[in-house]
Amino acid sequence: MRQFLTIAVILTTAALFVVGCGPKAAQNGQKVSPAPVLSAVPFSQLKASALDTVDFISDKTGYVGGQGLILKSGDGGQTWSKLYASTDNVVSVDVGDDVNVWAATSDYLLRSTDGRSFQRVDPAIDAGQNGKGISAIDFVSGDQGFILANGVIWRLNNGSDVQRATPPGQVDSLSFVDQNTGFATVANVVYKTRDGGGTWTRIFTAPVATSNGQDAWRSTIRAGNATNAWLLVYGGDEGMSQMAYVVFHTTDGTGFTPVMDEGYFSVDYPTIHLNNNNQNIGIQPGPFTVHGDEEAFFTGWGAVQLLLTRTVDDGKSFAGTDIGAHIDTLPDSSTPVGISFADATHGWLVGSQNGQGIILDTTDGETFKAVP
Fold this sequence. Notes:
Strand order of the largest sheet: 1-8-7-6-5
Strand content: 35-45%
Structural class: mainly beta
Largest sheet: 5 strands, antiparallel
Radius of gyration: 20 Å
Distance between the termini: 28 Å
Number of helices: 0
């Protein structure tokens, strides 16, 4: 529902298979017995590799995914249970409620209806040279959602019926607020659907350009509801570890206003003039998330540390926090980092530190520390 993403699915065989904590993911067509859920232990005891994705639905309950695993916490991140293990990287987790959870690797989905065990689901979607290329999922109910795979959006109905539901072009990101209403971005263009991806309307084109052409731009959109959404357009010119970007915001679901920019490459967006006292999200942008109508949380990279910039008043003001050197930085806008906020003060960041997974949490929206 929130977080980095979207879905469509059909089973290639009639059987679903429960995946437990064994060392290898179940192959489609191979049944495995459910392994018992491990006792909740401090994260440090799990010796997890790099983490990519996190989604909390409350200040207590959340899930993380990464290199070959899915973990669950029921106490805000102080202890964790390993629910799934394999050799495949989990790139996205989307939590509907305490028991309905979807996750994705680059080639298949994982579904839980009890918050404990996962079933493998193989969506019948087109595969490219490097496989299905699933990069994001976004569920609007327990059995209906959207998948972004190789730049194409697919819709999943009733947990099994999959349909192509994509706008024209190579899709960078998507964000759905219900089964009908959603946003998608293609380079610097925003599309909106009001019929579950059946048709799309082009509603905004960000005024950016470079000597490399507009195809050099990429974008991410996150919607709090049908009228309130945040758009990050980034790429353009790059140099000296910096990257051009602009953050836009809409409160009517169609017209986007620039609220923050990188500043150095302003030649790439000459019509945008902001007086934001040099407030930005770093020299390169990272992933971001939204919560409700007024709260948005942006990660970005400084020279050697991860940064967090947040607004809790619908973009009227922004506050920045130096997360420190806890999470490895290149910097690189593609560095795996996951972010989730359950409310204005309770948030989590996941990534890696020296090749090992790390989880940071905050209870005041500003000060982050590594969980035990």
